[in-house]
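worker-03 picked up job from queue 'complexes'. Input manifest follows; two sequence lines, order preserved.
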Amino acid sequence: MAVEFVESDWDVRHMLKLMVNSAAYRQDSRATAAKRAADPDNRLLSRGPRYRLDAEVLRDQALVVGGLLQRRIGGPGVRPYQPKGVWKDVAFAGSNTREYQADSGTALYRRTLYTFWKRTSPPPSMAVFDAPTREQCTVRRERTNTPLQALVLMNDPQYVEAARGLAQQAVKRADVDAERARWMFRRALARAASDVDVDVEQLVAAAGVFRKQFTGDPKAADKLLGVGASPKPDGLDAIECASWTMVANLLMNRDDFLNVE
Amino acid sequence: MSGSFCDNVDSSRRTFLAGAGLGAAALSTMLTEDALADRSTHFSPRARRVIWLFMAGAPSQLDTLDHKPGLQKLFDKDLPDSIRGAQRLTTMTSSQPRFPIAPSVFRFPRHGDCGKPVSELFPRVGSMADELAFVHTIHTDAINHDPAITLIQTGNQTAGHPSLGAWLSYGLGTMNRNLPSFVVLNCEPRGQALYSRLWGSGFLASRHAGVAFRSQGDPVLYLSNPAGVSRDVRRVMIERLRAMNETILARGGDPETQARIAQYEMAFRMQASVPELVDISGESKSTLEMYGEQATQPGTFAANCLLARRMAERDVRFIQVFHRGWDHHGSLPKNIRRQAGEVDQPAWALVQDLKQRGLLDDTLVIWGGEFGRTVYSQGTLTRSDYGRDHHPRCYSMWFAGGGTAGGVSYGRTDDFSYNIVENPVHIRDLNATILHLLGIDHRRLSVKYQGLDHRLTGVLPARVVKPILA
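worker-03 finished. Artifact:
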């Protein structure tokens, strides 16, 4: 590489092109057990990297998949959902950011780079995914894997609402479970479900169980569909929507949904 | 992190720990079961847990623990220049024409066999003087709240360094499988602000950051299932997720997938264990009475002390309770009465409760704030009223249990509690001592970051305060 750099007359662009077009760079992260054993830390670049998406990207991805993302560029920062009292817990008595007032309407669904950032109390759903505090330069983010992250992805209204959004689209588009599952899978993971259909079978089976649970408790279905500010589905069956919201919640917590592979 | 192309902090930690003998800590991930094995520490620990009752805003040592009876006859006299020296003052008092001495209005009855004088503001804390180690010569580098509280919490005045609790989580791993190893309990917002960086993980992985439990809504953020989702529905979801992730694991073979399966199950367990932890309905009447009336009011210092004990019982390693509102620039006698009134009984009850349950021997309890306060009055001085400005040169703290000695007083300040006469204890020494009690040599707990080997105690010399050890 060094010789190539010199011989290309120190052409940085050429070097970058060479690297990103290389076979090593373009690998995906799949690896056989043998490969993994031979190169456990990937020192030899025997496979591509596999890593969890960054905090902001995770939220943006959920908004896209749920059909909620606002693509408008620019403008002032916004305040999406945040649990009550998080700012107040640490605020100076006279602070003008003591009370958090969430925005409404489209401001709730803008890309996360527009999320208002209070440095003494960063958005907790970002901090938990290793978003830097912005108090000093961060060259490389940590990527941790914790139960608090699971709680955010399962329970934060932003993610629950996104799951509902995904479910509503699926229910609208198809009547057959397998078709809903197949569409949802493709929409979430940007690839077709696996050939043997194990992925689709798993989703369909889960939908059946959730359907049974919500049929036994229709009020619960209504409550779940009330999470988030976006309008409840009109003319769609509440039990179907709630059951598929849980399927979407399941899908959107899969390890391959959370990771770049 | 096998998916990464390069090393990260955790793999250098692995290298470090292998060399230093904290061996098995290597793979600890917050709350995962592989982290449960008992760590080998540098030497045998005296304390397994720490409860720090942090008095944010900085209580006056002159009105609480550092008795200066000689000041009474110096009321309203000017603080001698020879005492103040060239010390930098805050801009809140630097332009005062005078620095009149304000003796404490509080009596200091003597307590216990050790005969320790403790302010009448703390009758119950005083009553256990024979069980406490008092240090009167803590000193710090910062004179304002933000840098001072950041310094005492992280060993540095500037943001970006791990807090003590994060260092402990990193160095020692976790002792339980259902709860975080570092928990923060905030009391009613009052006075100076706090910052989440005070319990942050700095350059360590964020799993080492303190988890702030909350007194309203979910005790842990996002703990509850969304409306309409029962525990049964969640159980089905978790089971199905496990099956899917096992398929993904079989296909891809990434150990992080295995870890994620465990984290979801931990999250599901936390959904049961955390509500159980904060449910005090099983506490006996006598226990509740011991902590006082406020013990049943969430968010009070009393309620948080009780929770701290429940966490200690469940082997949360580091519990920090922040009680705010000690920044008494004016009307100190009135304001400090209320503050101490909230703290005295629950702090005493916590120590006694731990003792009764056999937990005090290996639980270190710490009481204190980020700096001290001036002997001279800020603003108008009368016989019954005065204020005190920030004072970093000396202040007092007390310690109980966890291998500290009882009835001991360490360090001496001058007649004005302005300068240290003997045995200074810098924040570094304080941290070195806490780590020592937990079995850690502060010189050997370090992390490579931005080209430096960072330690909680920094690069300047730090020493363990042996005379307060049992």
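worker-03 released lock.
Chain B has eleven helices and 17 strands.
Chain B has a mean pLDDT of 90.
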